[in-house]
Amino acid sequence: MGKTRPLRLRAGGWVLAGLVIAALVIAPIAALFWQAVQGSDGLWSHLGRNVLPHALGQTAILMTGVGVLVAGIGTSMAWLVTAYDFRGRRVLEWALLLPLAVPTYIVAYAYLDLLHPLGPVQSAIRTVLGYDSPRQFRLPDIRSMPGAIVLLSLVLYPYVYLPTRAMFMTQAANLVEVARTLGTSRRHIFWRVAVPLARPAIAVGISLALMETLNDIGASEFLGVRSLTISVYTTWVTRSDLPGAAQIALAMIVLVVALVSLERWARRHQRYSISAQRARTFAPAPLRGGAALAAFGLGFLPVLFGFIVPATFLAVEAWKRFQFAGLSDRLLIEARNSFVISAAATVAVLLCGLVLAYGARAFPQRAMLAAQRVSTLGYAMPGTVLALGVLIATASLDRLIDRTAQEWFGLSTGLLLMGSGVGLGYAYLARFLAISVGSIEAGLARIPRSFDQAARTLGQGVTGTLWHVHLPLSKAAIAAAGLLVFVDCMKELSATLLLRPLNFETLATHLYGEAARGTYEEAALAALAIVAVGILPVVLLARVGRKP
Known about the structure:
single chain; mainly alpha; MetI-like fold; 78% helix; Iron ABC transporter permease; transmembrane helix; membrane; cell membrane
């Protein structure tokens, strides 16, 4: 009994810490529900008549179009680089991931300037055709629903490409060989064998892409699509109607739950397993001559329009701006702000993720496992929705602290948490904790349980085992998680736009402000810096993705 009691005490501490972290994730969602219930009389009926139908319709059209397009691009590109061997295939394998480095709002920002009636593309076309002004010839306006669908799909298709390619790479060669012996062509193998087997990966990729589409605020606003996210933002900021924004956010939560439930229902009976002893990837079919050139050209198109064109545009505009005015002090301050808040949030996210992942491994109790699952809810919530919940919860705590300080010390603390950036860091923690938990849990899963037992026999406790065994062996997974979280914080626009302290600008909010004013050249340096940082996790994913 003397040995089990300290272990129970240590377990209680880890479980308590896990429950506190889970409560921090749940608090914004609970605050959102509470604020929505407090709405004024007749508000919901007004939203139901005048706001929600149009916003829901626009969101449904946008998500349907993006879902179909990312599924087509991602799946076809995954099959192209897996089933066929041609010159340049190795380059395409990692290059097809590059659009992930460009946030959706930056792609919209770049193409709005490129395809403007007075921009370089349409001006060049008019010169070739012999026209003098946009009145004589102009391309269809990119500020439209089709434009938004195409641009978002060019950025988000890697969410489908990456898991689908991994699924194609790990499918056993004998399945394809059996189909070939039955006289099935490689094209029919794609539809009858490869796609059905990859449906779980495709479904997961589509759901992630749709989550990002629902979370988007910058690209949708720039391109004239009034989605639910834009409705939340305008209802809150422009109309100063917090209960109304909370009620629209509830509609978004219902949509997210329905999306996740539909994805799981669609693959509820899909369980595929292949013998590890017999599994081997099938040999890609070699292509030569014109077929090889056509295959490379087809695979290069998403990279060209999803990364090379916007990145080149940003580099050219940034260089022009740098030659004209150099690096402004304002931009350097914004870069510092972005780095500091992202780094601080990353440290907090990693610590909380380590507590949840290791606590669930060391003490697999029902409460700890439940806390781990609850901690991932924030990642499914759009940034605008989560930011609204964080505002309500943090503002309530600010008022409590201020009232207490006045009663006890006669001092007013004001917006202590919101004004210091704690609210923004809190939003980052709740939103990106799932990345940390998942990555660290995957790293810990590779460490045999026998290592824990050996450490215990050598006199190490739970914390000592973590410090001396698990941290050194899982440092690569922790570093990868930290990189992903840091870059996501740097790119996050929705929560940053709504929760940043007064006079606190980041690279993302600077870009949004300049693009909203139409001064695109002023934002080129900030956009290029965000893209440069975004390439880091793409390099990491490319290195990991080389192995099945």
